[in-house]
Amino acid sequence: MVVNHLQIKNLTVSVANNQILKNVNIYAETGDIFGIVGPNGAGKSTLLKTIMHHYTVDIKSGRICFNQKSLNKLFTNQIADLGFFYVSQNPIELDGVGMIDFLKLIYTKQHNQYSFSDMYFKTNEHMKQWNLPEELLTHDINVGFSGGQKKKSEIVQMSFFNPKVLLLDEIDSGLDVDTTKKLVEQILRDRKKYITIVISHQTDFLQMLKPNKVLVLVKGRIVKTGGASLICEINTKGFKPFMKLEKSDDFVKEDPYRVCRK
Predict the structure, then answer these.
(1) By three-state DSSP, how is residue 1 classified?
(2) Which 3-state string (H, E, C) describes 70-102?
(3) Residue 180: how many CB atoms within 10 A of its CB?
(4) Coil, helix or strand for 223?
(5) Segment 11-32, tens digit of pLDDT
């Protein structure tokens, strides 16, 4: 099994000249499931957007590396080409981009060729698996979709993409109980194939995922790290005990063989 490594070191980020993330350190490798939790406005979504080099973020200092390769100056499409799949909190509508055409593009890029029969079978299989009407394939991406259908559409795209790193920002929001359980089953079944970083406000969802690392983000800093038991503590006490913690927990694996390359 190929083991991929994601390292975020001393990351400080601003958005619209406002500092959002401060000295964030993370090390993750294939098989890890990270749960990112914290109060509203803590910088959780900004963290995932920064990994994908979203146009609104400005990296002031620090480095993001994947398999020793720096991502700081790569464009979003180049980061996606490395195997990063990002689901935003509110998937946008893409007027003029047909869903079936987009899935075909992903399929062709993954397989370096196009097989109509295999594509047809895979598309129908995933649409049925996630209870999406076939007629949505004729729509532009997310146009006319309900909130839940938008999230399911992202899951179908994820299944086509064969990711190395999953960045999921409240993917459980808008999903019914059965779909959420099915999603958890898929992530756990395939967890050894990728790094998973999940943001959620639903502690039940995080507990089902059984993350091996939970990071508490407050005012742009990682103030606490722990295992799945930390979710139970948050579920009981909320975030109030963490609000006064100011020092960032330097959760970064120091290894001279994994230093970021320029």
Answers:
(1) coil
(2) ECCCCCHHHHHHCCEEEECCCCCCEEEEEHHHH
(3) 19
(4) strand
(5) 999 999 999 999 999 999 999 9
Instruction: For residues 142 and 98, give the distance between their C-alpha atoms in angstroms, rounded to a whole number.
Output: 9
Instruction: Extract the runs of DSSP E, i.e. beta strands, from the chain.
Output: 5-15, 18-29, 33-37, 57-66, 69-70, 84-87, 94-98, 140-141, 165-169, 195-199, 213-218, 221-226
pLDDT tens-digit readout, 168-199: 999 999 899 999 999 999 999 999 999 999 99
CA distance 165 to 86: 8
C-alpha 187/C-alpha 193 separation (Å) is: 9
Q: Specify the DSSP element, H or E, that contains 152.
A: helix 147-161
Q: What is the pLDDT of residue 152?
A: 94
Look-up: residue for tokens 């400005």? Answer: 58
Query: How many angstroms separate the Cα of 9 from the Cα of each of 26, 35, 57, 138, 221?
Result: 7, 18, 16, 43, 13
Q: What is the pTM of this model?
A: 0.91
**What does the radius of gyration of the chain's CA atoms come to, in whole angstroms?**
18
Cα–Cα distance, 228 to 207 (Å, whole number): 7
Q: Give every CB contact of residue 102 below 8 A, 6+ residues apart in sequence.
A: 94, 141, 157
